[in-house]
Structures are given as C-alpha cells and as structure tokens.
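Quick one: GNAT family N-acetyltransferase from Streptomyces katsurahamanus, structure tokens please.
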Amino acid sequence: MIRTAVPEDVPEIHRMVRELAEYEKALDEARATEEQLREALFGERPAAYAHIAETDDGEVAGFALWFLNFSTWRGVHGIYLEDLYVRPDRRGGGHGKALLAELARICVERGYERLEWSVLNWNTPSIDFYRSLGAKPQDEWTVYRLTDEALATLGTPR
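--- reply ---
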C-alpha cells in the first residue's frame, strides 16, 4: 500500500500537489513545476522525500512529501511533513494513516524524535484525524513566514 516514490511518480505527485492546493483554497500559490519537484526529490542533492499510497489495484491514492529538520533541544533530526494528501474518493481507506505510520516507522528506525506538520485551522476533518492518532497541536507556537516582496526586501543588501 505504501512505497517510496520513484522519478516516474513526479507527474502524479505534481497533480496531487495542485489538488491539495485547490482543496486548501490556494491554487494560485502552488507554483512548483514538475521539473522543480523532480530535482527536489531525485536530483543530485535531494531536498525532500516522498512516499506514495496505492490502492490494491495499483492506483495512486495519495502521497506524503517530507524533509529532515533538526531539534537543537533534542539534538537529533526529525521529519517535517510538508504535504499529506489522499484523494477525496480514496479517503477512509486507511491510506493517510498508513503514510503517517511509515513516516513514524522511519523516525523510530533512525532515532528521530519528532514527526511534525502544520494543518490549516479550518481543516476540521484533518485535525480530528490527527488527534485520533495521538498527535497534539502545538498551540503555543505561531508560524511566521517571509515570502515574495517582504523576503526580497529583507534579503537585499542596503
């Protein structure tokens, strides 16, 4: 049901990234190309990793795209789950749980002490699902982000 992504999966991963962005009401922000994803996942220096959830008949049901982070407090790597997506017609079949279980297995196997991700505050079905697995929200932290003009302004020498 769960396997490591291969380069031939990139077009399908790209489609699912766009489907996820549409679900999250931010399709115009999903600008990554297939070529960028291919380089990030399978280039000379991979920046991210992906797993694919398949149905019993081999159809792609969803994916997880993740990368390593590091905790200065724990002193070890962890996994940051950038995207978890199961196609709407495949939800409820255990694919999301299986993807998260595979990432948890990798953490345990490699001695990583955290598996983290973000979820939109309005995404109640996902929040309920994550809580059912024992995940706890980190309510005391607020994510900040610099992009576009603000990033360019701060990053441009004066």
